[in-house]
Amino acid sequence: MKRRDFITAIAGLAATWPFAARAQQPDRVRRIGVLMAYAESDPVGQSEVAAFRDALAKLGWTEGKNLRIELRWSGGDVDRIRTLAKELVDLQPDVILSASTQVTSAFARETRTLPIVFVNVADPLTTGLVASLARPGGNVTGFMMDNSAQSGKWVQLLKDIAPRTARVALLLNPATGPPVKLFMPSIQAAASSLAIQVSAAPVQTKDEIEGVIAAQARNPGGGLIVMPAAFNVINRELIIALAARYGVPAIYFSPFFPRLGGLIAYSADFAEQFGEASEYIDRILKGAKPGQLPIQAPTKFELVINTKTAKALGLDVPLHLQQLADEVIE
Q1: Cα–Cα distance, 16 to 141 (Å, whole number)
Q2: From start to end of 147-231, where are the E strands?
Q3: pLDDT tens-digit series, residues 133-148
């Protein structure tokens, strides 16, 4: 073989080496850290995680093949949220999925470099999680609640289904929910237009819930808005039972409440947000920077009404509400 032909052959073979080596190597397994605000046994959290996993699978990510998910459940415990956030950051995952305002804040305190994609966060701009909604600029991005679209509607819908409503208590847990001040402007504006008095009713333990609901029942016209908080999700059956016992009309921030016997709920489709978060995570795993991915507001809201509960409270659900509802439980 001539020297020139030999060199050409070797060069051609060498050019194929990187591709052959790459073909022989298995796909690198990427790691996602996930921290949920609920207990592992909670069907709400399980349904959201299932939506996330299904969406990832459709994008080509298969657990055990090219993906590993490090999933943790905090059970709504603030100290446990902090501990688990640090634990997951120490694992140095490729990206983090953060569910709720408190969980995201805990991660943001632990790392300024690992990419974080959040869901179900109230006003990430005001809470200081991002510099801009259009261009977050740091390591955090995701899918927020629309405070104004939801909270003003809670007042209006409660008045529509319970016309005698004259005062409303906001059942909240400051440790496991977004700051109530983020919701108050829209709530106060709607309440003022309907001549409804509004008061915040913070609770720290489940034993305090009954006192709030009983106080609303002492005089006619009392109502309840159950605010976003992992504490309220964990205690949802107790809240629903007490509202029924005291005859207090209540509107909830999640459709799971009326499905368990609550009166009415209006909320963003949180399961859809988990699916959308998988798309951002897919883009980040393929090289996108979280600071360049805009914060997204919800595009789909759900109205769920339990007419059996309405009847037990002596309420007639207006026809227009039944027609607007995404789900009517009879």
Answers
A1: 40
A2: 167-172, 197-202, 222-226
A3: 999 999 999 999 877 7
Element (H, E) at 35: strand 30-36
For residue 250, give the 3-state DSSP assignment: strand
Of 214, 216, 256, nearest to 235 (Cα)?
A: 256
Domains 30-145+269-299 and 147-268+302-329 share a fold: yes
Domain ranges for the chain: 30-145+269-299, 147-268+302-329
Return the number of other C-beta atoms located less than 10 Å from residue 12's C-beta: 9
State in words which class domain 147-268+302-329 has.
alpha beta
* Assigned token pair, 72: 């943790």
pLDDT of res. 76: 87
Using an 8 Å Cβ cutoff, are 182 and 122 in contact? Answer: yes
Q: Would you give the DSSP letter of residue 311? A: H
Low-confidence ranges of the chain (pLDDT < 50): 1-26
Helices 43-58, 270-285: crossing angle, 10 deg rounding? 40
Architecture of domain 30-145+269-299: 3-Layer(aba) Sandwich (3.40)
Among candidate residues 114, 103, 105, 120, the one with its CA nearest the CA of residue 48: 120
Return the bridge partners of 122, or none: 145
Determine contact, residues 118/99, Cβ cutoff 8 Å. yes
Distances in whole angstroms, Cα of residue 249 to Cα of each of 11, 47, 280: 79, 27, 39
Q: Which residues contact 279 (CB under 8 A, 6 or more apart)?
A: 55, 59
Residue 299 pLDDT: 84
* Type and span of the H or E element at 329: strand 327-329
| Residue 43 contacts residue 257 (beta carbons within 8 Å) | no
pTM of the predicted model, to two decimals?
0.85
Closest CA to 37 of 114, 95, 122: 122
Amino acid 53: pLDDT: 97
